[in-house]
Automatic annotation (TrEMBL):
Keyword Membrane: yes
Upper taxonomic lineage: Bacteria, Pseudomonadati, Bacteroidota, Flavobacteriia, Flavobacteriales
UniProt entry keywords in alphabetical sequence: Membrane, Transmembrane, Transmembrane helix
Coiled coil stretches, renumbered: none
Ranges that cross the membrane: 12-30
Domain PASTA intervals: 42-108, 110-180
Protein name as it appears in the record: PASTA domain-containing protein
């Protein structure tokens, strides 16, 4: 009987009501605090800041109520303008809250200078490796009378001779003067068709030849697909070009313009066997 009287008492139900109200108030308070803390509903898309200078990047972020924070400066990258943004975190397109710091990596205003390695009397292959591993680019190859074939005789920057151990910015183009050996030897002309521009440059460099004119097709639709479709001098399996000669190339993304002659130059033994098989028997 006492239990029933307790259940029916006003004191019990008043306490229950107070507990429910207190729980509701606590839930509302916590939810309001979380919404305020996380700024729910204030999502902002991070803009693409690549290649902007620092002031432009700061302005673009402030317009979106975001904060710029310099993370660090990296090794100089010649592909980006000096002092421009080369990396950001979070990346562009990410969704963040208002006031979020965006960390920026900035390209230095000045490239770090690097010593030219010891190249004189080294072979062309070793000199190219040493230069590229240091961050230099290899430019024109010039051949002069010298007993050592493909041996470095001189080093130039912008046509002017320079000394080993001199310092230049990373990415500087270094020209090599090489010995042509005892005789006026000729070399086969490499087959460049189907190659991308950088691949053609590398193959010419390995063959001791220089890239001449680069002519682009007028109707290129996708620059990521361009390849060599013509070259001058023409490819040859027989020795026909002197070291240091210039080679002009034509580029296109229309593969129907490329002559169907790769088998003849890249796999001549297969082409010969096919020709022999097709020849009529006497």
């Amino acid at each position: 009987m006492k239990l029933f009287r307790f259940i029916k008492s006003k004191t019990l139900w008043a306490n229950v009501l107070l507990i429910i109200v207190a729980c509701a108030l606590i839930f509302w308070g916590v939810n309001s605090w979380l919404s305020s803390y996380t700024r729910h509903g204030d999502n902002i898309v991070v803009p693409n800041l690549s290649r902007m200078d620092y002031d432009e990047a700061v302005t673009a972020l402030e317009q979106r109520e975001l904060v710029a924070e310099i993370m660090d400066t990296s090794e100089f990258d010649p592909e980006f303008p000096r002092g421009s943004i080369i990396n950001q975190y979070p990346e562009d397109g990410a969704t963040v809250k208002k006031g979020r710091p965006i960390r920026l990596t900035i390209n230095p205003l000045k490239a770090r200078k690097i010593e030219i390695p010891q190249l004189i009397e080294k072979t062309k292959r070793r000199a190219i490796y040493d230069l590229e591993s240091k961050g230099f680019k290899v430019g024109e190859l010039t051949y002069v009378p010298y007993i050592g074939k493909d041996v470095v005789v001189d080093i130039k920057v912008n046509g002017q001779s320079v000394k080993e151990k001199e310092k230049f910015e990373k990415g500087t183009t270094i020209e090599l003067v090489l010995g042509q050996g005892l005789g006026n030897e000729l070399s086969p002309m490499p087959y460049l068709r189907h190659l991308a521009l950088e691949e053609a440059k590398q193959l010419l460099l390995e063959a001791s030849l220089n890239l001449g004119s680069v002519i682009y097709d007028e109707e290129i639709k996708d620059s990521s697909l361009i390849v060599v479709y013509n070259q001058r001098p023409a490819p040859s399996l027989e020795p026909s070009v002197r070291p240091g000669a210039e080679v002009d190339i034509w580029l296109t993304d229309d593969y129907t313009k490329i002559p169907n002659d790769s088998l003849q130059f890249l796999h001549p033994e297969i082409a010969d066997s096919l020709n022999n098989a097709a020849a009529p028997t006497p």
